[in-house]
Amino acid sequence: MKNLFLLFSLVIITSAVSAQDVFSCKNTRFSFFSSAPLEDIEAKTDKGVSAINVKTGAIYFKVPIASFQFRKKLMQDHFNQNYLESDKFPFAEFKGKVVENTDLSRNGTYEVTVEGMLNLHGVDKAYREKGTITVKDGNITAGSTFNIRVADHRIDVPSMVVKNVAEVVAVTVNAVYTAVVNR
């Protein structure tokens, strides 16, 4: 609940809005895939939150790092303890904006560019990535797949496991938004 309050506050603060301009998603899906010579690593979560302001194009994502589920428990333990240090850096957070002047209040599928700042592992880095936003009868879905270089976020991969963990990880995000209603 605290995350949703912060999420709405951030999107609303970015501009004067009416409730019909803000859409939220409580179960945003994130996954990542790492392909290295010795093994592939994949994890998923649906514990992320997101919000989008269709009037301003402001967009926000936040995901608890410890919520990612792996095929192998040992991979999950190493991910949280050794690489992402989820006790020290519990969330990844992105604050950005749709670059194009797209009317997201009208039905359609829009290829968009989103740029903003990703905080991961306590390190901010600017990203500019492609995504798709679909608007249909007041419902909005958004998705994107992009790459993150682990070194850019000071995620150390010991040389002895460099064949197990890729330097670049593909991240996929999908959100299904509903309108925020004032009560």
UniProtKB/TrEMBL annotation:
It comes from the Bacteria. Pfam families: YceI. Residues 51-176 form the Lipid/polyisoprenoid-binding YceI-like domain. Keywords: Signal. Transmembrane segments: none annotated. Residues 1-19 form the signal peptide. This is YceI family protein.
